[in-house]
Amino acid sequence: MSSKPFCLSDTLKHVEIERPQKHGALEVFPLRWPVVSHLDYLTLDEALEARSIEITEFTEGGRVSLVNIVNRSERMVFLMAGEHLVGCKQNRVVNSSVMIPPDTQIPLPVTCVERGRWGYRTQTFSSGHSSSHYVLRAMMACGAADCDRGARGPKANQAAVWREVSRKMRAMASRSPSDALQAIFLNHDARLNEWAERFPVPTDCNGAVFVVGGIIAGADLFGSQETLRKLWPKLLRSCAIDALESPEQDRESTAAEEITRWLARGVDARQQAFPSPGIGLDVHIQGKEITGASLVVNDQPVHAELFQPTKLTREPAAADRADARHRQTAANTCPRPANGREKRPSFEPLFAGENRMPMQFCSFDGSYLERLRSGDVQTQQHFVSYFSELIRLKLRRRLSSPSAIEDVRQETFTRVWVALRNERGIHQPESLGAFVNSVCNNVLREHYRRTSKEVPSGDEAEANVADPAMGAVEAITDRQMRQRARQILDHLSERYRLLLQQVFLEERDKNQICQDLGVTREYLRVLLHRAKKSFRALSLGATGGNSNEPHCPAADRCRVAVKTPRRPT
Fold first, then answer.
1. In terms of C-beta density within 10 A (0-12 exposed, 13-18 middle, 19 or more buried), how is residue 515 classed?
2. Pair (544, 480) in one structural domain
3. Residue whose C-alpha is closest to residue 161's, from 207, 123, 109, 120
4. Greatest Cα pair distance in the chain
């Protein structure tokens, strides 16, 4: 190991560029990166194949932006930014390159690339044997510069990622009932395999620059040649899928001098180090016409990804500006009743007890709902912009942590998209606002239950306090009420206890519950009514029916799991 701390800019000065390979709209310039790394680790696919690691949803109910990874081996495991995880409740991609320590369990920051599904397909994630296409990887890297990097690593602009996945699917004429990015790679598997034969792994190299349609897309560099060899199929397919989108025409080959000039911009780029979600440092790189990140472990480079920002890869910032424009012109873009009068939507109960902000409200009709289901971009952008503002107004009063607010907002939209694509989903456009509100309430309740079981550390301990005015007495009461709720469940009959747990705590599909119990949906409602009535009776008995007992919001959250939410009117 070198005694001098690793510095990416120093090494970029001495990168050697080899003779390029070219096919169609794709050019690949192999690189020799003069670094030395003696780290011993497995790649994601190697670890999954050896069953050394297990990747699951962060909790049983799931969380869009986090998954749980357990490394049971005695070796470190490397996950490259953009690698595809398929299965569980929805497919995800890894936000940034990360090294998982041996014999440990950590939360892993991820981003959803399958917005039309929110239900278990498998209990664990597997490898998609693919990586996000280069445009999406560059977009997420550009967005990382402006994101709020908490203790659990960088977050992506989820709405912008969904838009890019939809754009890519349209451009590649791919279809998926759940809008899964993985479908694009499956649909074009034969062509991608053909391109893979045209681009063998570069010999004696540990990096490459990829040029698509005559424009530098980016570069990947690794601390060892062996890592490049193992990840080469994923890297090549991620660029080839973008090259297939580019029109085939005769172009002059890109000059090696142009590659040299672009890499030189990284020498003067600003670098900022953050703790990695695993071990080591996640060093963000931002300069003129170059951005990216580098993972450094024990002062040894593992992976560096560099991108040349383009109009598409700057999408997150553009999306934020578009959201502002949509809010200003909401009155012109949303449907109105025939009489021309604007009706306040059923989402208005979000503002109960809050200071109202002047904003344009809109109602929804059948044509709006159909455009939303069909994937109309303008309608989707309006929908996300409009309800994002309402959801944030609702959550600011209830959650103090900006990251928690964003998690609940993203998960709310994920579940709404799933319902919209379901044949038995929303059929009454006028109830769209009430439905989004109901979903947000459910996600918020899950967040309360989840955070009540987690032990926060560092800044999160203060940020996750829902009521900053809560004192010691209220905190003790909150813990007592949660314990009381669990005791009441224990005193219910086994059938009622299991029913309430499966419906409200585990949130299992009701059709599956009916099948397990051998009852109809109608009789399931009867059983639920009886179970909730028994719970309330025991609850009143436990409190002695004392109406003068001090009110505790945390106690409400403990009972809310078995309380039927009042639908807004």
1. exposed
2. yes
3. 109
4. 84
Lookup: tokens for 60:
């049983």
Q: What is the pLDDT of residues 398-412, one digit of tens each?
A: 887 777 888 888 888
Residue ranges making up the domain that contains 421: 329-453
* Beta bridge partners of residue 77, listed in sequence order: 42, 100
Q: Is 545 left (phi over 0), alpha (psi -120 to 50) or beta?
A: left
Q: Is the pLDDT of residue 554 over 50?
A: no
Q: List all residues 6 or more positions away from 457 whose beta carbon is below 8 Å from its beta carbon.
A: 151
Q: Where are the alpha helices (DSSP H) in 112-224?
A: 134-144, 158-171, 182-187, 189-198
Enumerate the β-bridge partners of residue 218.
210, 307
Chain centroid offset of residue 201 CA: 31
Q: Are 202 and 179 in contact (CB under 8 A)?
A: no
pLDDT digits (tens, 9 = 90+) for 235-252: 999 999 999 988 766 678
DSSP per position, 324-376: HHHHHTHHHHS---TTSPPPPPTTGGGGTTS-----------HHHHHHHHHT-
Q: Higher model confidence: residue 264 or residue 503?
A: 264
CB 180 within 8 A of CB 117: yes
Same domain, 477 and 408: no
| Spatial distance between the Cα atoms of 100 and 42, rounded to a whole number of angstroms | 10
Residue ending a domain, among 244, 272, 307, is: 307
Using CB atoms within 10 A of its CB, is residue 33 exposed (0-12), middle (13-18) or buried (19+)?
buried
Asked if the structure places residue 567 within a domain, the reply is no
Does 434 lie in the same domain as 486?
Answer: no
pLDDT at 10: 81
Whether this prediction's pTM lies above 0.70 is answered by no
| CATH number reported for the structural domain that contains residue 513 in this entry | 1.10.10.10
β pairing state of 104-112 and 83-87? unpaired
The contacts of residue 61 (CB under 8 Å, 6+ apart) are 446, 450, 506, 507
pLDDT in tens, 198-230: 999 999 999 999 999 999 999 999 999 999 999
Torsion 489-495-496-498 (CA) sign: positive
Q: Are residues 164 and 244 both part of a single domain?
A: yes
E runs forming strands in 238-334: 270-275, 281-287, 290-297, 300-307
More confident residue, 211 or 157: 211
The CB-side HSE value for 527 (13 A sphere, CA atoms) comes to: 21
Residues 170 and 201 reside in one and the same domain: yes
- What is the Rg, in whole angstroms, of the alpha carbon atoms belonging to the chain? 26
Q: Look up residue 90 and give its two tokens.
A: 């929805």
CA distance 482 to 487: 9
Within-domain flag for 312: no
Give the number of domains in the chain. Answer: 3
Burial code (b: 16+ CB inside 10 Å, e: under 16) for 101-117 equals eeeeebbbbbbbbbbbb
Helix (H) or strand (E) holding 54: strand 53-57
- 391 and 300 in a single domain? The answer is no
Instruction: State both tokens at 505.
Output: 């705590």
For residue 320, is it within any domain? no
- CA dist 303 → 8, 48, 71, 247 (Å): 10, 20, 20, 31
Structure tokens at 132: 């996000």
